Amino acid sequence: MKLDDIVKNKLKEIVANHCVQGGSMTAPFVGERSGYTISMDDEALRLLSETIRKIMTFRPKIKEKFTDNYLQDRLIDIIFSCHIAPPSDLDIKLQQETRRLLRRLHRTIESWVFLIPIVNLKMIGLKKISIGEVDFYDLNPKTFKYLELEFGTKMGHEKTLAKRRSVLTRDNIHVISVTKATAGETEKAKNLALYKVDSSLNVLRLYNFVNDVGIQRGFSTSFSRENIYFQNLRTGTIGATHGGLPPPSFFPFSITKSALKQMRRFQFRNFSKLLRGKWPTKLAEKLAMAIHWYGLAVKDKYGVDKIIKLTVALESLLLRREDRLKKQLLAERAAFILGKDGKSRKEIFEIVEELYTLRSDIVHEGKHDISEEDTLRLLELVRILIHAMMKISLRVTSLKDIDKRIKEIKFGSHIRGV
Q: Kind and range of the H or E element at 124?
């Protein structure tokens, strides 16, 4: 059966049997369009969810461009328009509205640029740095004015530019990130933009993980008010949108010219290229996923959750779906990637086995008393492995290549490391 027929039949079932005109105090959904009110029952909402899943499954491109909430609103629009149609015209009208919606969803693609403030990040002596598809700007008065003029928006509700900037800096926002996203609607584009920005911040997190007294530092996109600003590049429409929940409190991280120079000595440019898709290999995909989970772990304040996310990062980096004996394979691959001789490989093997056992105790036995030392050890191990795998990815494309090299080292003689 064609998708438009599936959608039409689902909506017909809702219109005919599961919604009524007028409001109801007990109905799970009551909506109004142009002064017309209808109520829908639980089965109607279930059928709506099922219809959205069908659309997303049959048309992956629609899933890429729109959120579930957007689709739900558009389907409810059709229900409203068809609920008042005469029963004899219901089939024809539903068919027309469904086909029109699916065509519009398939064709619609628009571009946005998002200005997203960053909490607890400072750039000293630097006006701008780029990571992946994101540009980070120092929030000095000149740059602030440039960004507002360039993108035709006001970053806040205060009347003067100086006051708008003052409100942001008062909330520890000294950097604005700028990135573009394409989608079918603002919310989906915003989610894509936030993902790009956080992926770029994850690269910075690889270079900044503890302060002098061993306390974890971090930074994240700002989620405190309506302070994610956007412009639709096709229509010129500007606006602001909420980002989510307030971020946890972190120690600030400052990027100086000397720090950036040091970062560039240790593959900073390569990580940036990775985010731009410059290495379309299986190993590059695994690296990107590992960095994502590492970033989630750094932001998490609970030791148990950190351990789980860090072990997922390890698995993303060093395991294939079909691998068995995960603990042994993880330990062996880590040992041969990082170890320079038999002694160091044995030490790394034992550390990984011990930490993976800790992960199993958490998942299967409910262990929750996690020491700060274990958390920092695993954090450091994953960070070093990501850096090592970044180097390796410049010359190999998959874990199979690494396994082949490990066998050569294990069974050969006088052979250098991976």
A: strand 121-124
What is the C-alpha to C-alpha distance for residues 333 and 336, in angstroms, rounded to an integer?
A: 5
Structure tokens at 179: 């990135």
Q: Based on C-alpha coordinates, what's the Rg of the chain?
A: 26
User: Are residues 81 and 124 located together in one domain of the fold?
Assistant: no
DSSP string, 169-232: HHTTEEEEEEEEEEESSHHHHHHHHHHHHHHHHHHHHTT--B-TTS-B---EE--SSS-EEEEE
User: What's the predicted TM-score (pTM) here?
Assistant: 0.84
Note down the domain range covering 146.
110-265
Question: Is residue 274 assigned to a domain?
Answer: no
- For residue 12, tell me if it sits in a domain: yes
- Do 254 and 374 lie in one domain? The reply is no
* Amino acid identity, position 129: I
226 band by pLDDT with thresholds 50, 70 and 90 = very low
* Cα angle: 349, vertex 354, 357; to 5 degrees: 125
Render pLDDT for 362-375 as a digit per residue (tens, 0 to 9).
Answer: 888 887 878 888 88
